[in-house]
Structure formats: structure tokens, C-alpha cells
Automatic annotation (TrEMBL):
<dbReference type="Pfam" id="PF05691">
    <property type="entry name" value="Raffinose_syn"/>
</dbReference>
<feature type="region of interest" description="Disordered">
    <location>
        <begin position="307"/>
        <end position="328"/>
    </location>
</feature>
<keyword id="KW-0119">Carbohydrate metabolism</keyword>
<dbReference type="GO" id="GO:0047274">
    <property type="term" value="F:galactinol-sucrose galactosyltransferase activity"/>
</dbReference>
<dbReference type="InterPro" id="IPR017853">
    <property type="entry name" value="GH"/>
</dbReference>
<feature type="region of interest" description="Disordered">
    <location>
        <begin position="1059"/>
        <end position="1092"/>
    </location>
</feature>
<protein>
    <recommendedName>
        <fullName>galactinol--sucrose galactosyltransferase</fullName>
        <ecNumber>2.4.1.82</ecNumber>
    </recommendedName>
</protein>
<dbReference type="InterPro" id="IPR013785">
    <property type="entry name" value="Aldolase_TIM"/>
</dbReference>
<feature type="compositionally biased region" description="Basic residues">
    <location>
        <begin position="1059"/>
        <end position="1069"/>
    </location>
</feature>
<feature type="region of interest" description="Disordered">
    <location>
        <begin position="406"/>
        <end position="454"/>
    </location>
</feature>
<feature type="region of interest" description="Disordered">
    <location>
        <begin position="1192"/>
        <end position="1223"/>
    </location>
</feature>
<feature type="signal peptide">
    <location>
        <begin position="1"/>
        <end position="18"/>
    </location>
</feature>
<keyword id="KW-0732">Signal</keyword>
<feature type="region of interest" description="Disordered">
    <location>
        <begin position="977"/>
        <end position="997"/>
    </location>
</feature>
<comment type="similarity">
    <text>Belongs to the glycosyl hydrolases 36 family.</text>
</comment>
<feature type="compositionally biased region" description="Low complexity">
    <location>
        <begin position="1070"/>
        <end position="1082"/>
    </location>
</feature>
<feature type="compositionally biased region" description="Pro residues">
    <location>
        <begin position="1083"/>
        <end position="1092"/>
    </location>
</feature>
Length: 1262
């Protein structure tokens, strides 16, 4: 028996450990397993023990190759064993997909991703790089993430995407744009629910197989599943990339910025940059960082002589007449340039071809006959030469970088856009080729140049006169759009990195289907000039020395000019290149990659002819590179001879990783942010040096990754933390505005785990300026505009930027809430896009957007209208929609109660409900009496009192200017479960509000989760009126017009029960009261104060992300040490918290301790905030006094993430009067008892040109 007892105990312990492993970190991880038998399946084990299938019919070659601690698994794939080979790899059928809804993030262009929604595998587009599944209406959730294995990259696709081409396809052997892989079975013979895995192999891939092909991760919380899955992918790939938790963001993203692109395009010049920054400073929104976008580099052909890309952007539009004159067509410009009798005929022909292209090719489906004929015609030499001439005259995509220095607009003559008088274009007369005017070699600047260049003078002016803290410069990952120039006679970089290989892009069949113009755009007809990797491979720190020489030349020059970082664009172009062995062997022969030894001579190598060069060979002269780099580390790298180039085949996946690693290593040396906390080192599984890896990631680096949404680049970032989230902001395309908001929101689900998503610049004066500003306030990323001088909206800027140029950025990326995670918010006609982001101390910001009516059309490759255009939607607002607040409610009430109370099955035909407080009105600054009284949205039924087992959250709507409290109690949940339900599954809506309350109820159909009867809003001051109520309020709904928006601040309520001594005091008989007073109708005494004190800081009301101003908050009893310390700090120079008259204490005379609050004080609220203006807080009891303490100007270190706990540092910030100095004062404050709104005015103390906002300690005595 004793042995049996021990055995039972061991089994129980093992089961407990297994359950603990199953729960992973306690946030809902579920284990995945692969079942055997005749039909192998990937299943997830739910909490109730049920095995739910995810993929049924797995091939035999797909087995578990890696398993993580949180239950994540990685599957392998082998095309040769179970798949169908294709022209660039092949595909493997994974089996039947089982889910109720899905969200796919797939590429919509070569550069960008976009969201897709559906319910089966047929809705999964090609090039899907992220697939989130909802197995049942209430979960669990499964993440499927294709990975990379060396030269093999995996993506997901549904069955129709891999089917046979449409009718009219060319015969076998004639590949067409978008044609499926060879041998793919017909779509008619496939189930619509079969999911396929495509393997894209590089030129050096030994076989189409991958050991780490697909990661699967499951759990009950979709956001936690994504976070855990991406972290597991980083470990499974051996540290190929780093997650957001291992990176440090640059300090620039916490401030307001300006970018030159949409203001000037390539016409940017120093005078325009200064004028734009000065104009922003004049309207009260100083730009603290600047991006000098495309247009400053030296390229071939020169940008100064070409009419390209819009002709000057917003600034040119402002200077144009009221009736702008349309520019002549591209064909007319080319005809005029020909200057011969044939020019007129050629121009007419080109104009006709252009009209034909726009009518029948530009937006034709990938399987259309006209598109396939065009793709075949442009391969002819004559057509390719004409296309090259047109693109040279109208586009920047055929231009190549020739020098690391700035062009003539930024030259040493002052940057007025003119060439130098001596025609030397920046070079000193008489110097040998390859030597620059500042005495350095081949574009590599000295660490201490003798005189700054024109670009250097611009940077100095921006920083010294206009208060700019950081300046970023743009360049492409390959140097410029079409890479590097190979013309040794005019290109210093060609001599530095010789030989420069002009590679032809070889996009995969999937990319040709998604974006057919990749076959005839500027990169295709001009080639991409790339630096060949070194023969011996990567150096000791994992960086290719030949590629690193290119970035060292660029970045050392920029660093010498005072530039602080770079925006690296056109990254996905490198992933489309395939360098084949025959051409590489010819180019790598002899000493073509070296510098001729250490004798300082030059070596000539003959480059083989290229098709677009007319077949003529060119001679490349390679100059010796001396030790002229910015620091000793670069001097050691550049001072020695560069190793010869490799003759091995290399494809885009490995080449993109080599470029990204070299670029980030160079940025880490030249643009590291000082003072960043060190990061923990992690060994790289691919053999890279762990010490070098730790040095790179131990500090923030000034880099913004852009046009990079291919997995070959996304899964290569080790240190770069800022990533562009979606396609550009297009100011001239009305349909692109709401589509942009939807794309950046859903793409941030993946990109938010890799870094800080950048939602791009925008125009404040555009019709959609307020919509974009609201989205940027929720983004959690950098906020910057591209306004031209004089084209500003001061109201939009004042809602985003503080007076000293700081942006109240959320602590993590804005992401969709779980209730709209799988909803097609762009075309279903009923759903609103709800984006949430966490702030400090547990608060969140929630943005609601009506983005119905426009989406990206994958067939026509443009934004198009949908059937839901012009539709208003009703969006519910509940704290339970936000994961952190949902977890807080689960801790208060229990996870089972919350799960039972939340609706599970969405149904667009559910019951109607009442719409209250549409929030369409714009409000001004909140002052005394201006805070709108919360209406009786609950129909007079009231809410539950604060009691054990209750969760409460303060909710403030920015546009509606309403302050409410949302409550959820255990009793309300029980009553909701016991209440009768409608056939749609929702609780009947409460009666409409009484007269004088909210607006008349509107009957609007909406899903049942909009009418949940347990999360309600009510006036904060009507606390005691519902003591006997047995019903909970209905959820608050907002009506959003087309393109409408609302930003809501959510702040958990801090509650403190006040224990009264001896119950309520009674007046003695005969003193102030007579018998019969009650019968005579005498007024009754006022009711006793409520037994609870509730407090919740909201933030600065004039800013969209009001809660970003709150750094810490806590509520204490008067005798607690934190309260004593805060009162002592405030009492150092004011008696705001002291009683009006000192009380005589027996034995102590008239003494009164300074650190003791007055006797009747029930609670002390302590808030640490920053900024100036009206600071709003929920306070259910009228404060007795409020005091402010100006804290020392120290760098906040609460930017470390959403999980930081500033409350724990609060006592250290306020330990005694020594920290308060002379800055304590009696605050100017107002209190609205009906709304429960406490508004404290934070004065604008300190110099106007201070670097940061003042930080305050707000002490509220209640």
C-alpha cells in the first residue's frame, strides 16, 4: 500500500508538471502534436482534453523537426519526397485545413504585405508569410508561420492559388506571368480546403527541401500566441533574427519628426528642408528629427537633369496655379529629346503604346492574354531599349549610385542646386581619380574632416538653430534603386567595390503573379548593380567584408556630416536576385576583386557584356583603398586588401541576409545611440561570433528598415528595431487612405514582434489628416509628417505633439482587438477596425476606425471600392476588448466567469440595440464645466457598486469629450448568464434612456458582442443611485460615419475602501434638531460619503493618446509610507495638504508633523506625469486639495516596454522634501462632481527651447 501511495503521488506530480508545461507561462499555451496512422494530422489539445485537428492528411516527409518550451513545433518539408517540383522550387500539400476563420498576411507587391480574411484554405493567397487560425468561435488559436532554411524560403498558399492557369493559357514550355509551378494539379480536382507550402529555392540550393519549413503555435489568447510563436521562430532558426524584446529602439521615435519625401520628392534641397522645419516650429510643433529622403545622392543619370516622380511634391502643388497644367506625356518628352525628324513619329508611337498599356495591361489579371503578350513583347531588344529610354526620362528606378557624397544640390557651394563654377562637381582640380576634395579616398570620409560639406552645413543648421536632435538620410539597401554603377570612370564606389555585377532580377512565379510589372520595370530593364560576396565567406563577426565596404563608405561620409541614422529602402529587390555560377566565374577570375596588393596601384579587369549595354565590354579600374575609415575598427577592415569575389552561386535569400547583416553592422559602428542599456547576448546558431552579436544588439542603432516585407529580410534583422508597416501614404489617392490604416494595423501583428512598426508619414492638411493622426496616436511607433512650408493643420498637430516636440508614444505596437481580428473590416459592412496599444501603469489607448469601402484588389493590383462604401458602422467599446484589461478582469473575477460572459458566435443578423453618444462632435480643451456629463446610457438601470469581485475601468472618449466608468461584477455576470436570451444569442437591450438623457435610441443591426449586458458605462457621480439595482448596463456603442474615427483612453480604476469608525455619527437630540422637523418637511441631512474612493488618471485631454502622459499612479491610505513621502514632498514649500488651523494635541502644544495628512483625509492619490495642459482624472470623491511637484529633469527609463512597472519606482522618486526643491505649488484644479472629473492644470514651466516636457508629481488628497 505504501508503494502504491508513492506511485500515485508520483503520477499526480507528473500530471501537475505536464499541466504546467501545457500552460507554458500561464497565459493559455496549448500543446501541438502530430498523430500517426493512415491520415497523419496536426492537432492541438484543448483545455478540456479534446484534440482539435488543424491540418489533416500531412505528407510523410513533414515531421516534427523542433519543439519549443511553449508547445510550439516546427515541421519539415521535402518536395522531392511528397511534392511537385516547380521552376523555382516546388510545393507540398499539407492537407485539409480546419478552422472557423483565418487571417493571412501575404505580399501584395514585391515590397509590401497586406491582410486577407476568410474561412478556408481557398482564401489563403500566394506568398502568405503569416497565417492565424481560429479553430472555433471562442478559440483556441493557431499560428502557422513559414520559415527559412538556408537557401530555401517557404510560403503558404491555398489550393486555387496553386491550380492550373485559366483558359487561354499558353502551351507547355511557354512560361507566363503568374503561371503556377510546373506539374501542379488542376484546381478542379482539388478541395478548396487544401493548404499548400511553397518552397522557393535559391540558385545554390542543393534540393527543394527544408528542415525548418513551418512553425505552428497554439493557445487561447491570439496575441499571446503570436508573441510566443515569433519568439520560438527566432530560437528555431538559431538566432537568425531577434525579436522586439531583444532590441533597443532609437530615442528619435519618442519625438515628432518631419520627412522630405511627400513635400519635395526627389527635388529636395537644403533651403526647402530648412523652410519646412522652420514652419513647423512656428506653428508650435517643433520637429526634433528629420529624414532627408530620396534626392540627395549622386546617381547616374543625374537626378538634377531628369523630370521624375511628381515634380516637387506638396511644395510644388502649393506654388502651382489654381488650374494646374497637365505635364506632357512621357512619349512627348522623349520625342523632344530625340531632336531629329523621326522624333515626332516615335513620340506618337510611344504615346499610343502608353495608352494601350494603361487600358489593357496595367490592371489586367495575371492570367489575362494581353498581359502575357506584353510580358513576351518587352523581352525583344528594340522594345527593351525603348522602355529603357522612357524609364530613364520618367523614373528613378533605372538610376544607379555613383558616389557616396551628396549631389550638387548639397555641394560645398552652399547647396543652392547649382554646379560648381569649375565644373569639377565637388572634386578638387588636379587630384587623381578616386581622391575626394576633403582628402579621403573613394567616398570614405576621415574621422575628422577639415571642412564640412554642404550636407554637413545643413545638418549643423538644423541642429544648432532649429532644435533638431537627429537627422536621418535615405539610401537603398543596394545603394540606390538599381544598385551601384559599374562605370569606373565616373563612379568612385565602382572602383571601391569592383567588380560590380549588374544582375538581372529573377522573381519567383508567385511574385510574377502578384506583381507582373516586376518583369519589365526599371530594375528589370536596367539590372541591379550588386557587390559580389567574398570568396572565403563571412568574417569572424558574421559580416561579409566586400559588402561591408560599400556601407562603410556611405555611412562614414554621413557620420562625418553629422547625420545620426539612415532609412534603408528598396530591400526586397535584393531577394529577387539569383547570381548564377557561369557569369560569376567570369567576373571573379584573376584579381578582379582585389586592390592590386599593397603597392597602391590599380588593377584592370574586363567585365563581360550585358544585354542592355549593347554587348560592349567595359573596363573596371580598381583603386587601392587606404585606412581612411571613421574608427579603428573600420580602418582595420578597409585598410587591408579586399578579398576576391566569390565564384559560387548565391540566391536572393542568402544575399539579402548578407546585405542586411553588413548594413546593420555598419550602422551599429557609425550611428549607435549612446547610453542605451546593454542587451543580453545570445549565441548565433549559424556560427557567428556571440560577442560581436551582443555588441551589435547592446545599443540602439539609427536605422529604419523600409520596403522589406519579404521573409528573407524580415527574418534577418538582428539590431534594426524600426520597420515600415505597410505601403506608402499616397496623398493623391482617396481610396488609399482607409486601406492604409487597415494594412498597417494588421501587419503590426507580425511586425510588432520584430520591432517598432513605422506607419509612415502623412499630410496634416490633407482631407484625411485627422484620420491618419488618430491612427498614428495608436500606432506605438514614430510620428512624423511630410508637410510643405505653410501647408499645416495646427489642430491636428496640437493633438499629436507637445509644445516641446515630444510624442506621447504607446509602449507597444497598435494591433487589432480580438473581436475584430478575423473580421473583414474593409468590406463586410458591419465591423469597425479597433486598434489598441498599451500605455504605462496598465492603461491602454483604443482607436476605432470606419475603414469600410476600399481595399487592395489583388487581381487589378490597385485600391478599389467595395460594396460597403459609404456605410456607417456601430462599434462597441469595452475594456474586455483589450487583452491586458481582459487579463486584469480575469484576475479579479476568474477566467471562467469572463469566458462564460463573453459572446462566442458572431452573427451579423443579431438583435438590434441602442446607439448612444456617437462622438461626432469635436471638443476643445477641457476646463471647468466643459467636461461633458456622461449620459444615462444604461436607461436608468444603473450599475453595481464597487465590491469584492468587481473590475472597473475609466473610459474617456477624445472627440465626444465624455468620461465614463465601465464595470463588470461577479453578480452581474451571474445575472447575465441567468437572463433570457434572444434567438440571436444576446441579452435583450435595456430600455431607452429617459427624456433629458442620451439621444433617442437607434435600431441598428449589429453582432451580438455589441450588445453584451455586462460591460456598461454610467456617470461616475451616480454611484449611490444604483445600490439596489440587479441589472448591469448595456455596452456603450459608437456610431462611426464613413472614414470616421474615435480615440478612447482606458485606465483601470484604483479603488480604496474607507473604514468608518463606529458607523455614521448622529446629532444629539435637542442640538440643531427639533422634534417634528421631519414631519414639517425640514431638509434631511446630506448622505454620508461613499465607503469607496475610486481614482483613475486619464491624461492630457488635448492629446489623442492622453494616457501617454501618465508615467505612474497609485492610491494609498494616509498612514502608508508612500503617502507620507508624497505629502512631505508637496509640503516642502506649500501647505496645500495641511489643515486650515493646526490642531492642539495634548502634550505637543500646537505642533503638527509636516508629513502627516489631515485627519479627515481618507486616501492620497499619487500620479507621476509629464507634459503641460489640462490633466484629467476620474475621482469619485471631491478632493480636499491638490499639489504639484516639478520633478528633476532626468531621462525616463520607462520606455523599456509595456511590461514595465513604473509604480514600483514611485517611492524612490518621492522620498522626502530634498527631491521636491522649490517647485512644489498649489495646483489650479477644478472638479465636476456629476461626471467625477478632476482637471488639474499643468503649467508650462521651464525654458521654451527645453529638450523635453516637464515631469510632475501630482498629489491628490481625498
Amino acid at each position: 500500500m505504501r508503494r502504491t501511495g508513492w506511485l500515485l503521488l508520483a503520477v499526480a506530480a507528473w500530471c501537475a508538471r505536464a499541466e504546467e508545461r501545457r500552460g507554458a507561462d500561464g497565459r493559455g499555451a496549448l500543446p501541438l502534436s502530430i498523430g500517426g496512422g493512415r491520415r497523419r494530422a496536426l492537432t492541438v489539445r484543448a483545455r478540456n482534453g479534446q484534440a482539435l485537428p488543424v491540418l489533416t492528411g500531412l505528407p510523410a516527409s513533414s515531421h516534427e523537426s523542433w519543439r519549443g518550451d511553449g508547445g510550439c513545433v516546427v515541421l519539415s518539408a521535402d518536395v522531392g519526397a511528397d511534392g511537385t517540383p516547380g521552376e523555382d522550387g516546388g510545393f507540398v500539400w499539407l492537407g485539409a485545413l480546419a478552422c472557423s476563420r483565418l487571417l493571412a498576411l501575404s505580399r501584395i507587391k514585391r515590397w509590401w504585405m497586406g491582410p486577407s480574411f476568410g474561412a478556408c484554405a481557398a482564401d489563403v493567397p500566394r506568398e502568405t508569410q503569416f497565417l492565424l487560425l481560429e479553430l472555433s468561435p471562442s478559440g483556441p488559436y493557431v499560428l502557422l508561420m513559414p520559415l527559412i532554411d538556408g537557401p530555401v524560403r517557404a510560403t503558404l498558399s491555398g489550393a486555387p492559388a496553386l491550380g492550373a492557369p485559366a483558359a487561354g493559357a499558353p502551351a507547355a514550355g511557354a512560361p507566363a506571368a503568374g503561371a503556377p509551378a510546373a506539374g501542379a494539379p488542376a484546381a478542379s480536382r482539388l478541395s478548396r480546403n487544401r493548404l499548400g507550402l511553397e518552397l522557393h529555392c535559391d540558385a545554390d540550393a542543393p534540393a527543394p527541401r527544408a528542415r525548418t519549413a513551418l512553425l505552428a503555435c497554439a493557445g487561447t489568447d491570439p496575441h499571446e500566441v503570436i508573441e510566443r510563436g515569433v519568439a520560438a521562430a527566432a530560437v528555431a532558426l538559431g538566432g537568425r533574427f531577434a525579436t522586439r524584446a531583444a532590441k533597443q529602439p532609437p530615442d528619435a521615435i519618442d519625438f515628432f519628426g518631419w520627412c522630405s519625401w511627400d513635400a519635395y520628392y526627389e527635388g529636395v534641397a537644403p533651403a526647402g528642408v530648412v523652410a519646412a522645419v522652420r514652419a513647423l516650429r512656428a506653428v508650435g510643433a517643433p520637429a526634433r528629427w528629420v529624414i532627408l529622403d530620396d534626392g540627395w545622392q549622386r546617381v547616374e543619370p543625374p537626378l538634377e537633369t531628369a523630370a521624375v516622380q511628381g515634380g516637387g511634391g506638396q511644395a510644388a502643388e502649393q506654388a502651382a496655379p489654381a488650374e494646374p497644367v497637365s505635364p506632357p506625356p512621357a512619349g512627348a518628352r522623349i520625342a523632344a529629346a530625340l531632336a531629329n525628324p523621326v522624333g515626332a513619329l516615335v513620340g506618337q508611337a510611344l504615346r499610343g503604346i502608353e495608352r494601350l498599356y494603361r487600358a489593357h495591361v496595367e490592371h489586367a489579371p495575371a492570367s489575362a492574354r494581353s498581359l502575357r503578350l506584353w510580358a513576351a513583347a518587352v523581352q525583344l531588344p528594340a522594345a527593351r531599349a525603348a522602355l529603357r529610354a522612357q524609364l530613364d526620362a520618367t523614373s528613378t528606378f533605372t538610376r544607379k549610385l555613383s558616389d557616396a557624397r551628396a549631389n550638387s544640390k548639397f555641394d560645398d557651394d552652399g547647396g543652392d542646386g547649382a554646379q560648381r563654377a569649375d565644373g569639377a562637381d565637388g572634386r578638387a582640380g588636379g587630384r587623381e581619380a578616386g581622391t575626394l576634395a576633403d582628402g579621403t579616398t573613394d567616398g570614405v570620409a576621415d574621422g575628422a574632416p577639415r571642412a564640412p560639406s554642404g550636407l554637413g552645413r545643413l545638418v549643423t543648421e538644423l541642429k544648432s538653430e532649429l532644435g533638431v536632435r537627429r537627422v536621418y538620410a535615405w539610401h537603398a539597401l543596394g545603394g540606390y534603386w538599381a544598385g551601384l554603377s559599374s562605370n569606373a570612370s565616373s563612379s568612385a564606389l565602382a572602383r571601391l567595390c569592383a567588380p560590380v555585377h549588374q544582375a538581372q532580377p529573377a522573381p519567383s512565379a508567385a511574385l510574377r503573379e502578384i506583381e507582373p510589372p516586376v518583369q519589365w520595370d526599371g530594375l528589370a530593364v536596367a539590372g541591379v548593380g550588386v557587390v559580389l560576396p567574398a570568396e572565403e565567406g563571412e568574417s569572424a563577426d558574421g559580416v561579409d567584408p566586400r559588402i561591408c565596404a560599400l556601407f562603410s563608405a556611405l555611412h562614414s561620409y554621413l557620420a562625418a556630416c553629422g547625420v545620426d541614422g539612415v532609412k534603408v529602402d528598396v530591400q526586397a529587390a535584393i531577394g529577387t536576385l539569383q547570381l548564377r555560377p557561369p557569369l560569376l566565374a567570369a567576373r571573379a577570375g584573376g584579381d578582379g576583386g582585389g586592390d592590386g596588393g599593397d603597392g597602391g596601384g590599380a588593377v584592370a579587369t574586363v567585365e563581360p557584356p550585358l544585354a542592355h549595354d549593347g554587348g560592349a565590354a567595359t573596363v573596371t579600374v580598381t583603386a587601392t583603398v587606404t585606412d581612411a575609415d571613421a574608427d579603428a575598427e573600420d580602418a582595420a577592415r578597409v585598410g587591408r586588401p579586399l578579398p576576391p569575389p566569390s565564384g559560387r552561386a548565391i540566391g536572393g535569400t542568402r544575399l539579402a541576409r548578407l546585405y542586411v547583416a553588413a548594413c546593420e553592422a555598419s550602422v551599429a559602428r557609425h550611428f549607435a545611440q549612446p547610453g542605451a542599456p546593454p542587451a543580453s547576448a545570445r549565441a548565433d546558431g549559424d556560427g557567428a561570433d556571440a560577442t560581436a552579436d551582443a555588441r551589435t544588439r547592446a545599443r540602439a542603432i539609427g536605422i529604419i528598415h523600409c520596403m522589406c516585407h519579404g521573409s528573407e529580410t524580415l527574418l534577418s534583422y538582428q539590431a534594426g528595431c524600426v520597420l515600415r508597416a505597410a505601403d506608402d501614404f499616397y496623398p493623391r489617392e482617396p481610396l488609399a487612405q482607409t486601406a492604409h490604416i487597415a494594412s498597417v494595423g494588421y501587419n503590426s501583428l507580425l511586425l510588432g514582434e520584430l520591432g517598432v512598426p513605422d506607419w509612415d508619414m502623412f499630410h496634416t492638411a490633407a482631407p484625411s489628416g485627422a484620420l491618419h493622426a488618430a491612427a498614428r496616436a495608436v500606432s506605438g511607433g514614430p510620428v512624423y509628417v511630410s508637410d510643405a512650408p505653410g501647408r499645416h493643420d495646427a489642430d491636428v498637430l496640437s493633438a499629436l505633439v507637445t509644445r516641446r516636440g515630444r510624442v506621447l508614444r504607446a509602449r507597444a505596437a497598435g494591433r487589432p482587438t480580438p473581436d475584430c481580428l478575423f473580421a473583414d473590416v474593409q468590406s463586410d459592412g458591419a465591423s469597425a477596425l479597433k486598434l489598441w496599444a498599451p500605455n504605462a501603469r496598465g492603461g491602454c489607448v483604443l482607436g476605432l476606425f470606419n475603414v469600410q469601402g476600399a481595399r487592395w484588389d489583388r487581381q487589378a493590383r490597385r485600391n478599389a471600392l467595395t460594396r460597403s462604401a459609404g456605410v456607417s458602422v456601430v462599434s462597441g467599446v469595452s475594456p474586455l476588448d483589450v487583452p491586458p484589461l481582459l487579463r486584469a478582469a480575469e484576475r479579479a473575477l476568474g477566467a471562467r466567469a469572463i469566458a462564460d460572459a463573453r459572446p462566442s458566435v458572431p452573427d451579423a443578423s443579431a438583435a438590434d440595440g441602442a446607439a448612444v453618444d456617437s462622438g461626432a462632435a469635436d471638443g476643445g480643451a477641457v476646463a471647468a464645466g466643459v467636461v461633458a456629463r456622461a449620459r444615462a446610457g444604461c436607461g436608468g438601470s444603473g450599475c453595481e457598486l464597487c465590491e469584492p469581485g468587481e473590475f472597473a475601468c475609466a473610459v474617456y472618449a477624445h472627440r465626444a469629450r465624455t468620461l465614463r466608468v465601465s464595470r463588470l461584477s461577479a453578480r452581474a455576470v451571474a445575472e447575465r448568464l441567468a437572463a433570457p436570451t434572444t434567438p440571436g444569442g444576446s441579452v435583450p437591450p435595456p430600455p431607452p434612456a429617459a427624456a433629458g438623457g442620451a439621444r433617442a435610441a437607434a435600431r441598428i443591426a449589429r453582432p451580438p458582442q455589441r450588445t453584451v449586458a455586462f460591460a456598461g458605462f454610467r456617470p461616475a457621480g451616480a454611484r449611490g443611485a444604483s445600490a439596489g439595482s440587479t441589472r448591469a448596463c448595456a455596452q456603450c456603442d459608437l456610431v462611426l460615419e464613413p472614414g470616421g474615427w474615435e480615440v478612447v483612453a482606458l485606465s483601470p480604476v484604483l479603488a480604496l475602501q474607507h473604514a468608518r469608525r463606529g458607523g455614521a455619527r448622529r446629532r444629539p437630540a435637542g442640538r440643531g434638531a427639533r422634534a417634528g422637523d421631519a414631519a414639517a418637511g425640514a431638509p434631511s441631512p446630506p448622505p454620508p460619503p461613499p465607503p469607496f474612493v475610486e481614482f483613475a488618471p486619464i491624461g492630457l485631454t488635448r492629446l489623442l493618446n492622453a494616457g501617454g502622459a501618465v508615467l505612474a499612479a497609485s492610491l494609498h491610505r494616509p498612514h502608508e509610507p508612500e503617502a507620507r513621502a508624497a505629502v512631505a514632498a508637496a509640503a516642502s514649500s506649500t501647505r496645500a495638504l495641511m489643515p486650515a488651523r493646526p490642531r492642539r494635541v495634548r502634550g505637543l502644544g500646537r505642533l503638527w508633523p509636516l508629513a502627516m495628512p489631515r485627519a479627515r483625509t481618507r486616501a492620497v492619490a499619487i500620479v507621476r506625469a509629464r507634459g503641460t495642459g489640462d490633466f484629467l482624472s476620474l475621482c469619485t470623491v471631491r478632493p480636499r486639495s491638490v499639489a504639484l511637484v516639478l520633478l528633476p529633469d532626468e531621462r525616463e527609463r520607462d520606455e523599456g516596454g509595456a511590461d514595465a512597472q513604473p509604480d514600483e519606482r514611485l517611492p524612490r522618486e518621492t522620498t522626502g522634501p530634498a527631491r521636491a526643491d522649490r517647485a512644489a505649488r498649489v495646483a489650479r484644479w477644478t472638479y465636476d462632481g456629476e461626471a467625477g472629473a478632476l482637471v488639474v492644470h499643468l503649467p508650462d514651466d521651464g525654458p521654451a527651447d527645453a529638450d523635453d516636457e516637464p515631469r510632475w508629481l501630482i498629489v491628490v488628497s481625498v
